[in-house]
């Protein structure tokens, strides 16, 4: 796989050098005075035939531009025409942003009645720097999955999209009922999935209907976001209100009996177009490939933007999600052999119940003081609750010589979570001297959260997984106390960053953040003698200082090299034998690589080496096994390669490869040193490619497909045995003529038997068999 990808990269690079070294490219983004993206703005080079129009996000690209001095013209109905002198250099890309003022004598209204999902490749992101910047200029590995790519893949769950991100493997956390991934060998918890820059901690599958794009930043993100998993973070950018009117109605269904109608509406509510809206809503119901795991989901996400003036705007977003789905931990292994049962086999019961509700409110207030300074004040509130009453795996009987039985228990659980965060950020864009351009942000974040959980348990029965008999006995009515606790945390973070451009060919990124994290934990303890409860309260404080330094240089034409070092942290709850609170677990990233735009930047190529060390990991205290000490260390090291772009007109691809060597490097148990991480493949890769007809009667008809491939992976923390590697193939055929759109996707074309991931030897998730998913929709 790696050799094939290397050959593709070398071929494209040679082709680029020989055929396109003398040409350049211009790209950028156009927004209004209210900082909203402008669709359909004409961007052209005066006196030439070269030009284009902006997409839904206000982005544009003019390709194959001969070196020279030009006048770049941006014009649109109702907006002032702007002209700018630009110099295009051989083999390089010029980035130009426009703020297009409204025309004092606006022409008649033009209503846009169609809304496509933007470009397949999105070259500009904001997650890594908190300000929009071309990814090719950011000295860190960032990958974007665009809305258009997600539509072609018919993404319903996040993992459908994340399969096409290098260094990412699937996880099965929280009983197979939420989004958990491993990035660069490290598990991403709910702490490392964000929505519009805010931590989005929920214990169910996040809805994808209102996602505009996914940005995956590799490595710890503590320098801007505080608490961070070492491998990376996922930031979801949601669809925003628009000044142009559109309506999109679609229906999706699959061969498991699931159907999913959805709407996406947008437009202005007044003639001045200062009040805009967006509405996404989904209803989903049906079965899955797993027995007793059906879904019923309702999601609605309204959004409003009001422009107080040309300089000030407020966006308010809300989400409500009601998701019914029983938890499912998959199947088990007996004596290191995975039970050979069908992919649908369940260890649960037909009447298992799981219900999750999540509410979200965000607002984002932006004000531009002048051409240099702007201010952002934003807040996020989420409230989620979950009820579970399930029969699930409890253990493997010690006296079972048949390697076929598991014991089960009934668990009655309720938990809820509240999160609030506010961010206040001052931005500045200015120059010091003729060659130095600064993009600076200074921010303050305050966040609080509360997580409350209780559960009771009771033994139920013994199940033969090869010949299961469900509902074998009445459910127990008297359960024993399991656990009951409430965690309250407070986070205070202050941060600053400067993204410095030197003569437009060198980039320097440096910043730092200081965090204070406080925990109050209230636990209920049961006195079995008196059958009474008592409360125990413990507190803990962690502080952390996390810097980042990055450098990027354009060395030959569009070829750039970069390097960065950053530090991250995660609070670690617990105490030593001496009663001292644990220090934060820290992570250090060393990364270096190259970025290049081939074939006049139609194709983006990235390659990176990374080394992430996680320190202060708690391990067993050798003097008392009941306690832990923080001397553990783990390391993940490897390389990644990504090729994304438009190879030919209409031919788009995403190709990835990753080599990840993730191991324990220090532990009080010598047997653990050198042990590979659970669930991490040394070799993994993916390909997704589509070709769409560009003209003729069948314009908009496309066909494509690809694969995801993973090597073998340790099943458990001791690497006692492994999940087999696999390569899964998917295919699609679709049609989009702006008004009507339809698609048919076939997943797991060869009906391969494989395993998506594991939490342990007794929680292994089989992969889905072959399935067909179709979508039909209309825009008006």
In CATH terms, what is the architecture of the largest domain?
Beta Barrel
Q: Which term fits the overall shape? A: globular
Largest sheet: 22 strands, antiparallel, barrel
Strand content: over 45%
Q: CATH topology of the largest domain, which one? A: Maltoporin, Chain A
CATH top level class name of the largest domain: Mainly Beta
Model regions low in confidence, pLDDT < 50 over at least 5 residues: 15-20, 103-116
Total strands: 45
Q: Residue share in helices?
A: under 10%
Q: Would you tell me the structural class of the helices and strands?
A: mainly beta
The number of helical elements comes to 5
Mean pLDDT: 89
Family: Belongs to the TonB-dependent receptor family.
Keywords: Cell outer membrane, Ion transport, Iron, Iron transport, Membrane, Receptor, Signal, TonB box, Transmembrane, Transmembrane beta strand, Transport
Membrane topology: Multi-pass membrane protein
InterPro entries: Beta-barrel_TonB, Beta-barrel_TonB_sf, Carb-bd-like_fold, Plug_dom, Plug_dom_sf, TonB-dep_rcpt-like, TonB_sidphr_rcpt
Structural description of this entry:
There is one protein chain. The protein is mainly β and 780 residues long. It folds into two domains: 20-107, Sandwich (Immunoglobulin-like), CATH 2.60.40; 237-344 and 366-523 and 534-779, Beta Barrel (Maltoporin, Chain A), CATH 2.40.170.20. 5% of the residues lie in helices and 59% in strands. It is built from five helices and 45 strands. The chain has a 22-stranded antiparallel barrel. The longest helix has 18 residues, at 2-19. It is globular and about 85 Å long.
């Amino acid at each position: 796989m790696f050799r094939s990808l290397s050959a593709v990269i070398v071929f494209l690079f040679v082709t680029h050098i020989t055929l396109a070294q003398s040409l350049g490219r211009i790209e950028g983004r156009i927004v209004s005075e209210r900082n909203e993206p402008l669709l359909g703005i004409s961007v052209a080079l005066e006196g030439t035939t070269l030009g284009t129009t902006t997409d839904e996000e206000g982005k544009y690209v003019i390709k194959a531009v001969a070196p020279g001095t030009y006048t770049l013209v941006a014009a649109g109905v109702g907006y002032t025409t702007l002209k700018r002198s630009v110099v295009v250099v051989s083999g390089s890309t010029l980035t130009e942003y426009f703020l297009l003022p409204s025309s004092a004598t606006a022409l008649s209204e033009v209503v846009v009645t169609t809304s496509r999902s933007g470009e397949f490749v999105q070259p500009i992101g904001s997650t890594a720097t908190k300000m929009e910047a071309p990814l090719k200029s950011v000295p860190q590995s960032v990958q974007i999955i665009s809305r258009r790519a997600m539509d072609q893949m018919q993404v319903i769950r996040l993992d459908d999209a994340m399969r096409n991100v290098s260094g990412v493997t699937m996880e099965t956390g929280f009983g197979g009922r939420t989004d958990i991934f491993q990035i660069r060998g490290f598990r991403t918890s709910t702490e490392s999935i964000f929505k519009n820059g805010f931590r989005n901690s929920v214990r169910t599958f996040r809805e994808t209907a209102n996602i505009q794009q996914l940005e995956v930043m590799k490595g710890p993100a503590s320098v801007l976001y505080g608490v961070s998993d070492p491998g990376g973070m996922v930031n979801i950018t949601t669809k925003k209100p628009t000044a142009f009117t559109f309506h999109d109605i679609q229906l999706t269904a699959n061969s498991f009996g699931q159907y999913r109608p959805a709407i996406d509406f947008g437009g202005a509510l007044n003639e001045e177009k200062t009040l805009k809206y967006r509405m996404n809503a989904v209803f989903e119901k049906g079965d899955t490939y797993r027995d007793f795991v059906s879904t019923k989901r309702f999601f609605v996400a309204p959004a409003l933007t009001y422009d107080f003036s040309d300089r000030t705007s407020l966006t308010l977003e809300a989400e409500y999600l009601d998701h019914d789905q029983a938890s499912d931990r998959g199947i088990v292994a007996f004596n290191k052999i995975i039970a050979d049962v069908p992919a649908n086999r369940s260890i649960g019961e037909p009447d298992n119940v799981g219900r999750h509700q999540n509410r979200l409110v965000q607002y984002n207030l932006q004000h531009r003081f002048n051409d240099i300074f702007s201010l952002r004040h934003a807040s996020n509130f989420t409230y989620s609750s979950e009820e579970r009453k399930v029969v699930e795996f409890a253990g493997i009987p010690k006296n079972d010589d048949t390697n076929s039985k598991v014991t089960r228990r009934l668990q009655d659980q309720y938990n809820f979570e509240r999160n609030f965060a506010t961010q206040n950020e001052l931005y500045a864009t200015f120059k010091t001297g003729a060659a130095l351009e600064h993009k600076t942000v200074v921010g303050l974040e305050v966040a609080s959260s509360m997580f409350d959980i209780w559960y009771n348990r009771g033994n139920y029965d013994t199940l033969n997984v090869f010949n299961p008999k469900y509902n074998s006995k009445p459910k127990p009515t008297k359960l024993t106390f399991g656990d009951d606790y409430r965690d309250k945390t407070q986070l205070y973070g202050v941060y600053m960053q400067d993204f410095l451009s030197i003569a437009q060919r060198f980039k320097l990124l440096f910043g730092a953040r200081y965090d204070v994290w406080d925990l109050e934990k209230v636990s209920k303890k049961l006195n079995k003698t008196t059958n009474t409860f008592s409360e125990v309260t413990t507190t803990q404080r962690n502080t952390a200082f996390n810097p980042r330094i990055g450098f990027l240089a354009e060395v030959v034409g569009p070829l750039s090299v970069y390097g960065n070092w950053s530090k991250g942290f995660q609070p670690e709850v617990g105490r030593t034998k001496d009663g001292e609170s644990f220090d934060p677990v820290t992570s250090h990233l060393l990364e270096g690589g190259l970025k290049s735009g081939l074939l006049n930047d139609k194709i983006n190529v990235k390659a990176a080496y990374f080394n992430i060390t996680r320190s202060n990991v708690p391990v067993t205290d050798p003097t008392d096994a009941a306690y832990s000490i923080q001397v553990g260390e783990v390391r993940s090291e490897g390389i990644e390669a990504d090729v994304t772009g438009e190879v030919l007109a209409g031919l788009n691809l995403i190709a990835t490869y990753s080599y990840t060597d993730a191991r324990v490097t220090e532990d009080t148990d010598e047997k653990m040193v050198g042990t590979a991480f659970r669930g991490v493949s040394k070799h993994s890769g993916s390909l997704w490619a589509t070709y769409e007809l560009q003209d003729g009667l069948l314009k908009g008809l496309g066909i494509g497909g690809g694969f995801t491939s993973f090597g073998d992976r340790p099943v458990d923390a001791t690497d006692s045995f492994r999940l087999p590697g696999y390569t899964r193939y998917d295919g699609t055929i679709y049609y989009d003529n702006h008004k009507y759109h339809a698609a048919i996707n076939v997943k797991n074309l060869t009906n391969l038997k494989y395993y998506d991931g594991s939490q342990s030897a007794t929680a292994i998730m089989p992969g889905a068999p072959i399935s067909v998913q179709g979508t039909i929709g209309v825009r008006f």
